[in-house]
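I'd like us to work through together how a protein chain folds, taking it slowly. We need material for that, and I hope you will provide a protein of your own picking. Go ahead whenever you are ready, and we will take it from there:
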Amino acid sequence: MRARAAIGVGLMWSALTLVAVSAQEPKGVATTQEEFEAKLGYQTGTVHLSGGMATITLPEEFRFLDVEGAKRLLVDAWGNPERSAEGVLGMMVPADVSPLEPGGWGIVITYDNDGFVNDDDAARMDFDKLLGEMQAGAREVNEEREKEGQPAVDLVGWAEPPHYDAEAHKLYWAKELAFGDSPTHTLNYNIRILGRRGVLVLNAVSGIDQLEDIRSQTQNVLAAVSFNEGHRYTDYLPGKDKAATYGVAGLIAGATVAKAGFFKAIWIGLLAFKKVLAGAAVAFFAMLKRVFSRKEPAEAA
């Protein structure tokens, strides 16, 4: 019985995945999970971002999706709004699990050209105070979300306190988020690579239950992504290059309106992913009901 139950759950998830994916395809086109993934265009080895600005030397644990592949995954498969894919340079996804499976997750890569971020404040950051300011900011954003008919997003706390490598000029931290009255919390894991004219922004899209998986890969990701010569943090020319109006603390908190808008889009995207799965479940069970309702009572029994 247990074996049959396990098989049933597996088949149900496969059906949910296919319903979620095929719902995004043009009518009349049947797409399996394998066919959909084949169109994502996975890459391995060394990839270059945005005209050679930065390089990713992919560890064997990851695959890369270019702009088109990332958009296809974010929008067509995960059900995010089109705006969530704006400015996306690519994605890193684990090599040992499909992004369409329950354990799948990915790291969305974008670039913030606000300018050179001075890191002098990194050594004296008060994490507790910073968290309190961020929680207050989240409450303000919730007022806008409620006007748009969206559930509130509460910043529960640090899932991973900020860590800054002053030599490599790389930063990471993670927030635990709660959407509305959902009992399942969401993870917002952030990695930042500081450069001469801006910052590479890497955001992991996943559930809170995948925190350990992502945490175990953080150092690999940090080592894999680097600005190229001429774009590095140490290439900054004071007085000539643009400087950001905030430091590392502001980078973590989301210092500008533009950043608040970006994070709001990411939050909406995470919620939309859950909605896709929920919608697929409804469609799947409705399909079962239609199938079995056609059978004779004895045959159905």
